[in-house]
Design a protein that fits this description.
This protein is of the alpha+beta class. It has one domain: Immunoglobulin-like. Helix content is 22%, strand content 43%. The strands form 2 sheets. Strands 2, 4, 6, 7, 9, 10, 11 and 12 form an 8-stranded mixed β-sheet that branches. It has a 4-stranded antiparallel β-sheet with strand order 1-3-8-5, with no helix packed on it. The longest helix has 23 residues.
Length: 190
């Protein structure tokens, strides 16, 4: 029994040595908000990226995703700009798609810039979703396909809102400082 155990351990060790290699990270999508302070009535943009560490030089050929969540309540979708190098194959509304040839092999690829208008104060979540379906949605690489699935929390502040200045506390602090300086001067004169 002990002999079998030793053989299994040796075999497992050999398999680990022979099968170990570089671990590849799967591509993932991300959203980048271009304006950190959004007020009611303003327009703002969100960039959609596809990122990858290594995919054996497999290039991105196309993508497709739907813009969802939060639309019509706090902010509304007003349009998009397809990323450089992609031809626009969007098919209406909030369905965004693009194709390119030859394939894009960059580590981070700008798929599109989404344009929005802030309607009301509050917070909501923006989502882009493209579950790979071998037809129109997802990220299409030369051999592989992956989902596009990202969310971003967006807060819209009321128009004309500024940070409150605590006047009574400020005056109290200034007065205490002046009294302290006067007392210190008086002590030094004695």
């Amino acid at each position: 029994m002990k002999r079998i155990f030793v053989k299994v351990v040796i075999l497992a060790g050999m398999l680990m040595c022979f099968c170990s290699g570089n671990v590849l990270a799967l591509p993932f999508s991300s959203l980048n908000l271009l304006d950190s302070s959004i007020t009611v009535g303003e327009t703002f943009d969100v960039q959609v990226f596809m990122n990858r560490d290594d995919l054996a030089d497999e290039g991105l050929l196309g993508f497709g995703f739907d813009v969802s969540a939060g639309l019509g309540t706090i902010f509304s979708f007003t349009g998009y700009t397809i990323g450089a190098g992609f031809d626009d194959f969007s098919y209406g509304g909030t369905n965004i798609a693009g194709l390119t040839f030859p394939a894009n092999t960059d580590a981070s690829v700008l798929l599109a810039t989404l344009h929005f208008s802030a309607l009301a104060a509050g917070a909501d979540t923006l989502g882009v979703l493209g579950i790979h379906d071998n037809l129109f949605l997802g990220a299409y690489y030369e051999i592989s396909g992956f989902d596009i699935d990202s969310t971003l929390d967006i807060t819209v502040i009321p128009e004309g809102t500024t940070a409150p200045i605590p006047e009574p506390t400020t005056m109290l602090l200034l007065g205490t400082g002046l009294l302290g300086m006067a007392g210190f001067r008086r002590k030094m004169q004695k």
